[in-house]
Amino acid sequence: MTETTAATSAPPAPAAKRRRLGRPDTLWLSAPGIAYLALLLLVPAGALILLSFRNPDTGAFELSVYRDMFSAGVYVKTLLNTFIISAEVTGVCILAGYPIAVWLAGMNERRRRMAMWLVLLPFWVSPLLKNFAWIVLLARKGIVAQILNGMGMEGGLDLLYGRGAVVFGMAHAMLPIAILTMLPTMLSIDKRLQPAAMTMGASRGQAFWRIFLPLSMPGVTAAGLLIFVMGLGFFITPALLGSPRETVLGQTLITQVQKLFNMRLAGALATLLLVVTLLTIALYDRIFGMSSVSGEGGGKSHHGRLSARVGNGLIALGAGLTDAAASVIPARFSRWTLSIFVWVILFVLIVPVIAFPPMAFNSASFLEFPPTSFSLKWFEAYLTSAQWTGATIRSAVIAVAVGLMSTLIAGVAAYGMARSRSKLNSLVFLIFLLPMIVPNIVIAVALFYVFAQVGLIATNLGIALGHTLTALPIVFVILLTTFRSMDWRLLQAAATMGATRWQQIRLILLPLVKGGTVAGFLFGVLHSFEELTIAIFVGAGVKQTLPKQMWDDILLSIQPTLAAASVFVVFIVTILFVIAEKSRPR
Length: 586
Fold this sequence. Notes:
Shape: globular
Mean pLDDT: 81
Number of strands: 0
Largest sheet: none
Distance between the termini: 14 Å
C-alpha cells in the first residue's frame, strides 16, 4: 500500500497524439487480469451467495437458512463480536500508527528508508508466526510475566486468551499496514505550510492541529477503512490468542466447512460478512468519499458536513490542549516523548521476529524464552521430517509459480493502464483492488465451493490460483507505480533515432522497469509463501503448505520443531524482503 497514492496519479502518456493516429487505447491490456478476477473472485462469490438462497432439494428460492441463522442468536452475537473487535483494532492501529507515520514523514529520505525496515519486516512476517511467538512470550511463566513479577506485580498474570490479547495481537499484525497507508499522504504535504503558519503567529501545536492534521486525514481515513475491513475477516489471532468469548465469523466459517460441511450455512455467513463489509465501504464513501483512499482529498462536501463539524471541534480542542501543555512542558521534552513512544512501538513490532531463533536452539522438549541450553536437534528433526520438508518444498514451488503468474497478469494490466487516459482507469484500478476489499475468509470459502465442483480441491494448482488472486493487488500497485514513473518520451526518442520496437523494449523499457518487476515478483512470492487462509480451505488438509503445517502443529501440539521451521521461514522472508526492498523503485 505504500505506493497507492503514486499509483493513482495521472500518467504523462501522450494520449492525444495516439488518438490522432487512430491507435486503440491500451486499457484493453487489463482484460486478462479482469477476466481472472471475474472467474476466481466474482463467479465463486456469486455462486456461494446463490447457494445460501437456494433450497438444496428443490432448487427453489428461499430464506430458511437466514431465518435459522438469525433465530439461533449465536451467529448474530458472533457478528457483533467480529464488528466490535475489528473497530477496537482499528482504533488502536490509528492511535499507535499515526505518531509513527508523523515521525517517519519528518525524516530525510535516507533515514526514513532505514527506519522503514523496522516497519516493513514485521509486515511481511505472517500473523501466524507472530502470534505463535506471542503465545510463548505472554505465557503465564513467559518472559513478560517474569518481568512484570520482577516489578512487583505478583500473582497470576493471565495475558493470553482474552479480549485484550486478541486486540493486541490483531493490532500488532495490522499496525504496519496502517502506517504504510498513512505515510504517503503525509509525505505529499508541503513542508513549508507549518513554518509559514508559525511566522503568522501560530504556535507549533496550532500549526500541527490546524494544518498538518487536516491535510493528513485522507490517509488516516483510508487506513481506518482498510484495517476495519481486514479485521472483519481475521481469524488467526482470535483462534490462537482468544477464548470462546472472542469467537469471530472466520472461525465459525471454518467450523461449518471443515467439521460440519454445511456449505449452505457457510454461504449465508459469508454473505453476511460480505454485506457488512460493503455497507462499511458505502458508509465510508458517504462520510469521506472514496477519493480519500487515493489521497486526493476529502470526500464529497455535501456528504461531510457532520464529520467536518465534529472534526473542526476536535481540532480546536486538540490545539487548545496542546497550547496549554506547551506552556508547562518544554518543547524538547515533547519531542523526546514522541521519540520514546515511537521506539517502544517499533520494538514491540520487531520482538516476535527476533524471538524465534533463540527458542529454536533450545535443547528442552518444550518452548521457552530465553532458552536455558543450546542444541541443534530440533533443526535436525525439521530437516529429517518428510512431513515438514514436503510442506516446505510445496510452499516454495507454489510461491514461485504465484510470483510468476501474478507478475505477468499484473504487469500487462499495469502497462496498459499506465499508457491509457481512459475514463475507466479508476474503475479498473478499483477492480484490481477487490481481493483486498473482500475479506480473505470469504474468498477462501467461495474458492472451496467452486473448486470442489471442478476437481481443484487438494491440488497444488488450486492453491496457486487462489494465492495468485490475493497477491494481485499489491503486485499490481507496485508495477503500476513502476510504469507510471517512466518517461515514455525516451521510447519516442529512440524510435526517432531508428530503434526498432524490439530494441526499444530490450534496451530502454526492460532496464527501466526491471527493479519494479523484481520487487513485484518477490512480493508475490512472499505473499504465497506465508498465506494460510486459502491453504486451509483449498488444500483441504491433503496438500499441506508450510503455513498450514505450522497451523496444525500450533493447534494440536506445539513442539520445538515448529520453532526451527519458523526460523527457516523468517530467514527466507528476510532474504526476499531485502532483495525486494533493494529492487523496489524509489
